[in-house]
Amino acid sequence: MPNDKLAILDRLFNPAGVAVIGVTGDPDRVGYCLLESLVYAGFKGRIYPVHPRLDSLLGLPVYRSLDELPGPVDLAVIGVNQYATVDMVEQCGQKGIPGVVCIAGGYREMGAAGEALEERLIAAARRYNMALVGPNTLGIINTAAGLNTSFYPMRLPVGRVSLISQSGGVGLTILQKASDEGLGINKWVGVGNRSTLELSDYLEYLARDRETGVIGIFLEGTDDARRLVKTAAAAARQKPVVIYKAGRSEAVNFAAVSHTGSMAGSYRIYRQIFAQHGLLVAESVAELVAACKALAIAPLPAGNRLGVITHTAGPSIVMLDEVVRREVEISSFQPATIETIKAALGENPAVVIKNPLDAAGHGMLAASFGRLADAVAGDPGVDLVAAVYCLHLHWRFPSRELLAVRRRTGKPLLALYVGTQAGVREERDYLQAGGIPVYLTAEEAAWGAAALAHYGIRRRGEN
Amino acid sequence: MPNDKLAILDRLFNPAGVAVIGVTGDPDRVGYCLLESLVYAGFKGRIYPVHPRLDSLLGLPVYRSLDELPGPVDLAVIGVNQYATVDMVEQCGQKGIPGVVCIAGGYREMGAAGEALEERLIAAARRYNMALVGPNTLGIINTAAGLNTSFYPMRLPVGRVSLISQSGGVGLTILQKASDEGLGINKWVGVGNRSTLELSDYLEYLARDRETGVIGIFLEGTDDARRLVKTAAAAARQKPVVIYKAGRSEAVNFAAVSHTGSMAGSYRIYRQIFAQHGLLVAESVAELVAACKALAIAPLPAGNRLGVITHTAGPSIVMLDEVVRREVEISSFQPATIETIKAALGENPAVVIKNPLDAAGHGMLAASFGRLADAVAGDPGVDLVAAVYCLHLHWRFPSRELLAVRRRTGKPLLALYVGTQAGVREERDYLQAGGIPVYLTAEEAAWGAAALAHYGIRRRGEN
Fold it and tell me: Residue B418 and residue A324: Cβ atoms within 8 Å?
C-alpha cells in the first residue's frame, strides 16, 4: 500500500471532525444510531450531523448540507440507502473529505444490478482519491479516540488488541467477548464489500500502528489471498497476528460467497499457509479472543515448556488435551524443584510431585498456592506457568502471590480461575493489569498458553 | 445395579438428616466450608455438625459424637483426613448411616500405600452395606433439596440437567458455566475414586430419576467402559446423555491415570462407541453445556433441517461451519415461504432470499424480525430455527416475537443474541422460561441446534 493510503487510513481512525450523513430523529433508524454511537463513545473530535431540515439532534447542531460544515472533516459516515450513498460519496469528494464509511448494503452481494451500482460508488471514490470503508459494513472503531462509526452504540475497554472482521456480526461477537473478558480493544474494522480497501490494507496499517500490539482477524474468504498472506506474514514479524477463518465446508463456502461476494477457498489449504507464515490460527471466536488476550497481556516466554500448578487435576488434564495438540511441551520438574515443592508441602502431603502439580488441599489457600506456584515457575525447565484455582466463596484468591511470582521470575503466567462469583471481575482486572491473563475455562487458558508458546518460538526463530 | 443400591442413592440425594464430620471454627478449613455449603444452599433437611469440643457453629448446635445425634441421619459428609476417614466410615456403619461422602484424597491415586488404605475404606463400607461416594471427591449436589456436600458453598439455579463428573474442578467449571447461562441444575456428583460406586451406578440412578431431564458426563477414563456404555445407551433411551471425554492424547492419558487411578483408552475408540450407542459427544465444557441447555429447554424437532434467520450473515456462517459437521441439514425454502418472505420485506429489499436468511436492515427491528422468523419457521422443510440477532443499546429485542413463533409453530427455536449489555440476562431468562435457549456465540448456538437434531433423530429411530 502506498504511504499516502496509510496516511489516509490514519486520518480515518483519528479524525479531527466527522460528518454523519443521513441522521434522523427516529431512534429506531440507523441514521440516528450512527450519531448516537459517536456521542455515546465520547468521540474526542468534532461531530457534524447533516440533515436538510433538522435543527439539532442529541444536543448537537445539525447542518443542512456539507457546504455549511464549520470545521475540517476527515471522515464522513454515510447512513443513507445504497443509491443515495453514491451521490453522497460524490459530494464528499467534491468537498475534499478524504474518507467515507458507507454503511448501506445492496451492492455487489445482490448480483449484477448491485455490482453496477458498486462500480459507480468505486468510481466516485477513485475520482477524488478517497478512502472508502465498506460499503455494507459497520465501519470502524478507535477506542482511544472515542470513535465508533457503527450504528451499535457501545463503550469498550481501551487496550492493545486491534481487529479486522469480514463480518459485522462476528466482529461484534468478538468485541463483546473481549469486553466480557476485560480485554482492551484498540481499533476495529468491519471490511464490508472491500470496494477500495482490502483486508490487506487495514492489516498493513495496523501492523505499523504503534498503539496496536496484537492483531486479530476474522476471515470469510478473499480473492486477494496471496497479498493477504504476504501482508500478514510481514505484520507477524512486528506483532502477533491471530486468524479465525470461517467457511470450512463446501456448504458454508456457498453462504460466504453470497454474503460479501468473496470467494472462499479450501479451509485446509488456508490453514496450512497461515501456519507456514507464522500466523496463529484460531478455531473459534473464543480461541481468537483467548489467544489475543494472552499475547496482549503477558510477556513472551523464552521457550515452550509449560508448568502447571493446581489443586484440582481435571482442568489441568483438559488444558493438556488442548496444548499437546499445539506447540507446547510439558516438562518434568528438575530435582531441585522437586525438593522445594516437597519442603513447601510438609509432612505426609498425599501429593504426587509431577507436572502438572496437583497439590490438592495444599493448594487451596492463597499463601501455600503461591509458594508452590513460585517453585514451579522457578524451575529452569519451565518457560511459562498456568495456575489453576477454583474460586471459593470466602477463601482469598492467590492473585497477590501470582503477581509476586510473575515479578520475581519474569516468566509469563496465566491464571485459570474457575468461577464467576462476586469479586472475580475485580480480581481478574487486578491480575490482568499486572500482566497475568485470567481465563474461566481450561480450554481458553490452554489456547492462551499455546498462543504465547507459538509466538515465542516464532520470534526466537528470527533472532 | 440392584434396586436397593438405587434406593440408597435416592436417600443420599434426598437425605432427611446430614451429619457433617470434621467441622472446625476456622473458615480456611475444609471442615468449616462443608457445613457452610449446606447452610448457604438452604438445605431443607436437618444438619448435624459433629465435633468433640465445639458447642455451636454457624448458628447450629454441634454434637460431640455420632451417639448424640437426635434424629435420623441418611448421609454423613466426612471432612477429616484420609486415615481418620476410615475410622469414621466404620463408626457411621455401626450407627446404621446408609451413606457417606468421603472428601479426603490420599488413597489409590497415591500408589501402593494409598491403595491399601482405600481397601480398608472399602471393606468398612461393605461391612455395613453402605453407599460410599468418593473418596477424593467434592461429593454430591441436589439443588431441589438445597443439598451441597462440597466445600464450595454455592447457590445454583434449579433445573432439569444433572451432571456426573470425574473431576471436581471440571465439574465446578460446568456448574459455573451453566449458572452463567441461566441453565438450571438438578443433581451433580463428583465421582472421585469410585471405590464402591461407579460412574455407571450414578448414571443408572439419574436415568431413572424423574427430576432429571438431561444427563451430562465429564469422563476422564474408566476400567468399567463396557458397563458404562451399556448403561449410558440404556439411559439415552429415556433422556439425552451428553459426554465430554478428556484424555485425547497419550501425554494426557498419563496424567489421567495418575489422577484418579483410572485407565484412559484411545479417545477415538471411545468417541466411536459413544456415537454408535446414541450418546452425544461434546468436545469442550462449552459444548457440553450448550448441548445440555438446548435439550433441557427446547422441545425435540421432528427432523434435522435447520432454518436460520438473521440480520448479520457472519454468525450464521460460523453456525453452518459447526452444524454441517454434525447431523444437521440446511434446507432450501419452499416457494410459498419465499413469497411470504418477499411480502414481509416489501419493495426493493436488497436481500437475497435463501437459507440462512440474512434480512440485513429488515431484520434489525423486532417486529419485522418476528415476521421473518415466523415465515422461516412456517416452512414445511424447516424442523428447527435459529434466530440470530445483535443486541442494540436501545432497540427492543425480538423476544416476544420469537416466543409467539415458538407457540404458533410448535417447532423448537434457538436464539443467538450477540451481546451481553444490560438487559440481556432478563431477556435470556424470559426466552428460556418460554422454551427458547439463548446463546451468546455462534458456535454454542450451533452445538445446541446439533444436539436437538441428533437426539431428535435418535428418538424417531426408535419409534
Answer: no
